[in-house]
Amino acid sequence: MRILTPSKRVFLTLTVFMLAYNINAQDQNLTVNQDPKFEQLLGEKRKINTSISTNDTYRIQIFSGKSEEAKKTLSDFKREYSNIDGTIIFNTPNYKVIVGNFKTRIEAERNLADIKNRYKSVFLLKPGK
Questions:
Q1: Distance CA 112, CA 59 (A)
Q2: 84-122 pLDDT, tens per residue?
Q3: What whole-number distance in Å separates Cα of residue 65 and Cα of residue 38?
Q4: Quick one: how many helices (H) and strands (E) in the chain?
Q5: CA nearest 58: which of 83, 85, 88, 34?
Q6: 110 φ/ψ angles, rounded to the nearest 5 degrees
Q7: pTM higher than 0.85 for the full model?
Q8: Torsion sign across C-alpha atoms 104, 109, 110, 116
Q9: Which residue ranges form the domains of the chain, and what is each CATH number?
Q10: What is the DSSP letter of 64?
Q11: Do residues 75 and 29 lie in contact, with contact meaning Cβ atoms separated by under 8 Å?
Q12: Contact between 87 and 60 (Cβ < 8 Å)
């Protein structure tokens, strides 16, 4: 261990104090000016989000895999079943094709039996899942 001479120690101490004296952190105020319409739009968005219930219907997953295959599967499904809505959801690492918004389990299972004839890995998704 190296021992500093008294003059070097004093010089080092004074240098540290002088540097620390000039440090100022976050001493300024920030004022944000935003358009009043922003709060109005945010309020409208909050109303819409509370009125949307996304997990109260039964859905059917017909595919899980790569992006291009999911797009092709959804396209084929929409061509074959034009009356049933479908979407692609990314859930790491797979893209999943989810179809239908069925209010009752009976309705979902009826469509599941029909869809199962065409697609191999098909299963029912319960509300809230």
A1: 9
A2: 999 999 888 999 999 998 889 999 999 999 999 888 889
A3: 40
A4: 4, 4
A5: 85
A6: -65, -45
A7: no
A8: positive
A9: 58-125 (3.30.70.1070)
A10: E
A11: no
A12: no
